[in-house]
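U., I forgot to send this yesterday:
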Amino acid sequence: MFKITQVSTALGSAIALAGALSALPAHAVSLDWESLAQQGQWTDGQTSGSFLLDSASGLSVDIDILIGEDTSLNSFGGGNLTPSVNSIVNGTQGDDDRSLHIQIDPDRAGTPGDSSFMTFAADFSQAVSGLSFSIFDIDLSNIGTWQDRVVVKGYKDGELVTPTFAALASAASFAVTDAFTLDGTGVGRNDSNDGAVKISFAGMVDSIEIAYGSGPDIAVANPETHGIGIGDFTMTAPETLEVEDVPEPATTAGLLGLSIAALVGRRKRD
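Result:
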């Protein structure tokens, strides 16, 4: 009788002959608004979508934009309804690298999570590392009729992950008011980086939320319409195992049969 370990060795040898596992290293991928718009995957006014980011690892993202009862989505300057991929609020990036423009019209100032805020939620199919993106045009009306308030949070397995904020201009039109919150503090031009911030996460995340509404430093009860731009996401997809040079199933079965037959023959000679 031959032992189970011998059968296991035979099976392993056959599988090794049939195909080899190779590791695709962790690699950079992105969610590019310009590409999504050009491919017709994001259209004006769209508030949700599922997008494959990396075919090798199967990494995808689900995006949902949730609107509170006391706010609404709006257009800007007679343009198309947002969310819209355009170059109105994308800092100094130019017309060929557009952002996702979100223009809101809240009925009142409020706090994240209440009905006067909208929430942009991105859920990844797998945890990613090195996630970063920019938000553009966080500022304050010069006559106190609106104030941008942006709150960014990351999550990993339901646990909160704190972001890092880095202003893209030396004289920023916003201030970091706590670990998650950015408030407009001055006037910033739409085509400048005055209100632009790069947001990154040192730890791994599997989802993020961006809450957006009006801050309290305004002189009116009902804020005017205001907007921000969300830039492209860059991240690192996880390492992936791939099987290379796999023959037909019949070939694999034959290899396994030959391996076991060789063991049986050896056992009879012993």
